[in-house]
Design a protein that fits this description.
By secondary structure, the protein is α/β, with parallel strands linked by helices. It is built from 6 helices and 5 strands, in the order βαβαβαβαβαα. The chain has a single domain (4-157), classed as Response regulator (Rossmann fold), CATH 3.40.50.2300. The protein is 44% helix and 18% strand. Helix 3 (69-78) runs parallel beside helix 4 (96-104) and helix 5 (118-136) runs parallel beside helix 6 (149-157). The longest helix is centred in the C-terminal third of the chain and has 19 residues, at 118-136. The modification 4-aspartylphosphate is found at residue 61.
Length: 158
């Protein structure tokens, strides 16, 4: 069974800790990794890929020193190794223009404003990870409990 990672990126340690805590329900089936900058995220993704692990989901803050979350997610979208990786932008400071750019240029899969609702975050992550697993053609038996059943049913049916 392949190791699938969720990478969370935020320059504020307390926000990063909150996201990781909120994703705890998924931690038995997915590795949850953290990065405090876009550069750290990209280095981590390179390491994970070099070890043969998959990056199923990246959740990034938008406003960070250096590279923004939109720019980071856009760079990930353009990297052929991570073409199936799902992307979530999590921010409290993005403008309408930033949001449109994130959707169009970075091809994000979901956008959350801070503060987020925990259940909505978990449900969205389940759905996106289920799509990732199915799109990759991975064996999902061991992760069935953590997957979104509606998405699984729709994809398998047809």
């Amino acid at each position: 069974m392949e190791t699938i990672n969720i990478v969370c990126v935020d320059d504020q340690p307390e926000v990063l800790d909150a996201v990781i805590k909120d994703l705890g329900a998924l931690a038995t089936h997915f590795n949850i990794e953290e990065a405090e900058s876009a550069d750290e995220c990209l280095d981590l993704m390179d390491e994970l890929e070099a070890r043969g692990e998959l990056v199923g989901l990246v959740i990034s803050d938008h406003v960070m020193p250096g590279t923004s979350g939109v720019a980071l997610l856009g760079e990930i979208s353009e990297d052929g190794r991570f073409v199936h990786t799902r992307k979530v932008l999590l921010t409290g400071q993005a403008t309408h223009k930033d949001t449109i750019n994130a959707i169009n240029a970075a091809r994000i899969d979901h956008y959350f404003e801070k503060p987020w609702q925990v259940e909505e975050l978990i449900d969205t992550c389940r759905r996106l990870l289920t799509e990732f697993i199915l799109d990759q053609g991975l064996d999902y038996e061991e992760k069935l409990e953590a997957m979104d059943q509606q998405t699984l049913y729709k994809k398998l049916k047809g």
